[in-house]
């Protein structure tokens, strides 16, 4: 049942906020490489023996002994290879042979994924690229974007066939913590603040994760990165709104240093977003063009490290923009768990929904009510139901649009106008509960006392629930 509750919430949240988990940069689908490059289709086996398909992009007439580069997608189910064609073309023009493949959909969804399986997919691609004509098998590395920044180090730490590692928009934080920060940042950028951002968004994701519907929520990348022995190139856009660009690089550097790996180069690109593409508005809009110098950096760096000249530790570029720090997102206490939230919803459905349902049943049976229905009781019933399910619907919508950095609509006193209206309705529901309780104390028929008592019980339980979700907080 907890999985059912979490699925209802998570299906809405993750289906659209998966881009906040870092969907791959977009490029037109169905476009092959330009005339100065050649493409060959390949197939290989990934994790669990799954057959995957991809394309090998190479310079036309390139010299033998070329380095090879496998591109690993960011989050997204079954992401096609065309999503990374801009990167593949840019890197191939730097003299690399690039393999880009369609991401798996089997065993991967909004609610299910295994970074270990994805790493096996990447290693399967490394194996086939090492056998391509013109590629030096000792010079093949992996490029991992966003979610791929969690995946690629697993592959590199596992196999000596990987000679170098490139990370773009990579995270040094747990996925759940990163996701909450990304969504909160999107809402803050739209002018939203207060409990909705600081309390409600983290609570929603904690409940979803507790219900088992947020895959790999507490994956810790540090131990894996600490086992990487290959040279590492890390790239971040200064205006990364999906990965905390100020916090992640030092965490990754610390993990590399702890493992004794001092061969890493970190570069920050100005006017660039999460995918190191140009952005005209601080990371909200992604342009098709890569940041100037990004492809050249990759080509030169790969040439150096595969020629036996791994660079010393270097961090360069303008300071990234990250106004807000991330905060820990621990598992919920039992009263905040998915079980508790499901129980609360059932209680509210019975308590608030039972009042009008019993009235309807009486009317259908031709029984006239023994007392006139109280207006306050009607307000408790309607207000409670509208507030609870309206808040969930609105919250999920705001989280979705916040994760995609879209405007949440009119904002009044640092919260969306609709959320403010729901907060007002929650307060009205509490007041109506008090008035209904006063009526319950009067001399009314026993049947009506039971009916109102259940409604009042729901109203009483509604108070701590609404407080915990920020609906009754200023």
From TrEMBL:
Single biological process term from Gene Ontology: proteolysis
Keyword Heme among record annotations: no
Gene Ontology MF, one: carboxylic ester hydrolase activity
Membrane-spanning parts: 338-358, 379-397, 417-440, 452-472
UniProt keyword list: Hydrolase, Membrane, Signal, Transmembrane, Transmembrane helix
Region (Disordered): 308-329
Signal sequence coordinates: 1-22
InterPro entries: AB_hydrolase_Est10, AB_hydrolase_fold, Pept_S9_AS
Protein name per the record: Alpha/beta hydrolase
Organism: Nonomuraea aridisoli
Species lineage: Bacteria, Bacillati, Actinomycetota, Actinomycetes, Streptosporangiales
């Amino acid at each position: 049942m907890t999985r059912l509750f979490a699925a209802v919430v998570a299906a809405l949240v993750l289906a659209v906020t998966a881009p906040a988990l870092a969907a791959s940069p977009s490029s037109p689908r169905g476009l092959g490489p330009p005339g100065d490059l050649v493409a060959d289709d390949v197939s290989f086996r990934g994790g669990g023996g799954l057959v995957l398909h991809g394309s090998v992009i190479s310079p036309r007439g390139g010299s033998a002994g070329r380095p090879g580069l496998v591109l690993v997608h960011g989050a997204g189910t079954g992401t096609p290879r065309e999503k990374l064609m801009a990167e593949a073309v840019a890197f191939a023009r730097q003299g690399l042979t690039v393999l880009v493949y369609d991401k798996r959909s089997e065993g991967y969804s909004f609610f299910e994924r295994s970074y270990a399986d994805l790493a096996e997919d990447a290693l399967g691609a490394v194996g086939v690229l090492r056998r391509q004509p013109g590629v030096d098998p000792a010079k093949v590395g992996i490029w991992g974007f966003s979610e791929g920044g969690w995946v690629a180090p697993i592959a590199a730490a596992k196999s000596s066939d990987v000679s170098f590692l490139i990370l773009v928009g990579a995270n040094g934080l747990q996925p759940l913590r990163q996701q909450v920060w990304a969504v909160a940042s999107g809402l803050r950028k739209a002018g939203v603040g207060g409990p909705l951002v600081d309390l409600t968004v983290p609570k929603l994701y904690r409940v979803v994760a507790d219900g088992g519907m947020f895959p790999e929520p507490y994956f810790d990348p540090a131990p894996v990165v600490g086992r990487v022995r290959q040279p590492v190139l890390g790239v971040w856009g200064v205006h990364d709104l999906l990965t905390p660009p100020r916090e992640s690089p030092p965490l990754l550097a610390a993990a590399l240093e702890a493992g004794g790996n001092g061969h890493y180069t970190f570069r920050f690109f100005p006017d660039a977003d999460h995918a190191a593409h140009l952005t005209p508005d601080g990371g909200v809009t992604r342009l098709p063009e890569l940041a100037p110098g990004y492809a050249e950096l990759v080509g030169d760096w790969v040439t150096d490290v595969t020629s036996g000249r791994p660079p010393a530790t270097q961090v360069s570029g303008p300071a990234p923009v990250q106004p807000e720090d991330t905060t820990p997102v621990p598992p919920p206490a039992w009263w905040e768990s998915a079980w508790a939230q499901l129980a609360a919803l059932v209680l509210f459905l019975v308590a608030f929904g039972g009042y009008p349902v019993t009235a309807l049943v009486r009317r259908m049976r031709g029984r006239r009510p023994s007392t006139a229905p109280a207006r306050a009781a009607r307000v408790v019933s309607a207000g409670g139901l509208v507030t609870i399910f309206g808040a969930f619907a609105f919250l999920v919508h705001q989280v979705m649009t916040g994760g995609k950095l879209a405007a949440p609509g009119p904002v009044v006193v640092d919260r969306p106008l609709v959320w403010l209206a729901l907060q007002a309705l929650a307060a009205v529901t509490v007041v109506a509960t008090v008035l209904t309780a006063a009526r319950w104390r009067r001399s009314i028929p026993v049947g009506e006392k039971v009916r109102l008592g259940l409604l009042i019980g729901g109203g009483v339980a509604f108070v701590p629930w609404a407080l915990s979700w920020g609906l009754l907080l200023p």
